[in-house]
Amino acid sequence: MSTSVGELVDLCRASGLRRTKALEVLLGTLLQADRPMTLAKLEKSRRLASQCDKATIYRLLHRLTDAGIVRRLGLHERAAYFALVLPDQHRDYLICTGCGSIAPVDAPCPVHDLEEEIRTKTGFQNLYHELEFFGTCPKCT
Ligand SMILES: [Zn+2]
Ligand SMILES: [Zn+2]
């Protein structure tokens, strides 16, 4: 059911990315984290650091974003978060406009019924959505 690194690598290759050890480790790190990660956080991953430098991680993230395999979240470059776009996973996010922190919303999704209705009315398959809620976190208030 859940996506494997191998499947992600296949997606990458279909999008014209070269299969490298750095790419595999980056995908594995994002998959394992199971939450959006900043570039700073990714750089601190020892597995990744042993494969490539910061510039490579940055370049790979942007290639993956262009390919639609990774999604960029957050407000500004300084606090940009990167998360895998997984077909079998649904997430809505809460983002602080003060510090740029980001967290998955820990509540039942409000739009699943709407999604079902759209599916029925339009005939679209593989529908998905991601919501971003903005506000000021307790630390910034
Ligand atoms: Zn904040
Ligand atoms: Zn949702």
What is the topological layout?
Blueprint: H1 5-14, H2 21-33, E1 37-38, H3 39-43, H4 46-49, H5 54-66, E2 70-73, E3 81-84, E4 93-96, E5 102-104, H6 112-122, E6 132-135
Parallel strand pairs: 4-6
Antiparallel strand pairs: 1-3, 2-3, 4-5
CATH class category label of the largest domain: Mainly Alpha
Remind me, CATH topology of the largest domain? Answer: Arc Repressor Mutant, subunit A
Strand content: 5-15%
- pLDDT average, as an integer? 89
Bound molecules: zinc ion
Strand order of the largest sheet: 1-3-2
The H-and-E topology, N to C, reads as HHEHHHEEEEHE
Query: Mind telling me the CATH superfamily name of the largest domain?
Result: Winged helix-like DNA-binding domain superfamily/Winged helix DNA-binding domain
- What's the β-strand tally? 6
